[in-house]
Amino acid sequence: MKKERLNVVDILKRMPSLFFGFLLFAVGILATLYSDLGMSPWDVFHMGIVKHSKFTLGQVSQLAGVAIIVITYFLGVVPGIGSVLNMFFIGLFIDLIQQLGIFVTPETIIPKVALLVFGILVMGWASFFYLRVGLGAGPRDGMMEMLVKKTGKPVWLIRNSIEMAVLVIGAVLGGPVGIGTIITVFGIGFSVQLAFAIGGYSSKEIEHINLIDVLGIRSWS
Length: 221
Hints:
Blueprint: H1 8-34, H2 41-51, H3 57-73, H4 81-100, H5 109-131, H6 139-151, H7 155-172, H8 179-199, H9 211-215
C-alpha cells in the first residue's frame, strides 16, 4: 500500500480527532476505575506499579508507553507522531481529569455496572478516533496492530490476549482485580472491534505514517 505524503497542514487537520481519542481514552480508563468493580487489565498493571512507587496513575501510564514504544521499535514498529503524543497526553489527561473530581464511585451495583460498560465502550471508540487518522498507533495499540498483521488473527483475540497477560503481571504486583476486570478483559476487544466495524476502520488496510516517513529519512514506497 502506498503511503500518503503529509505536510504540516495535513497533520494539523488530523489533530482534533487524535486528541479527542486521547481524551476519550482517559475518560474510559477513569470510568472503569471509579466503577469500583475491578480495574481494566492495563490499569491493574499500572496500579500495581503505583503501589510500589511514588508515581501517579497517569505517570505510570506514560512510563509504560515509553517502554512499549522502545520494545516494539526493536520488533519493527517505528512510532508515529500519534504514538508519541498518545504516550504523553493520555497519562496527562488521566491525572488532570482525576484532579478535577469529575468521577465518583456509585453506591449501588446497577450504576457501577453502567459506569463500567460506559468505560469499556468509550475506550473502543477512543481507539477508533486516534487510529483512523493514520499518524501512528498508540504504544499499546501499535503492539496490537503489529501482532494482528503478523499473525492474521482478529483484533478481539489479539487484544484480549495482550490484556490477559498484563492482568496476570498486574495482579502479581498487587493491582486491584475484581469482576469488572474480567468483564473488561473480554469486553474491550469486542468494543474495539465494534467501533472499528461501525467506523469503517481496518488495521489490516491502513498503513500508519511513522516518524521516519514524516522526517523524510527514507524514500516513500
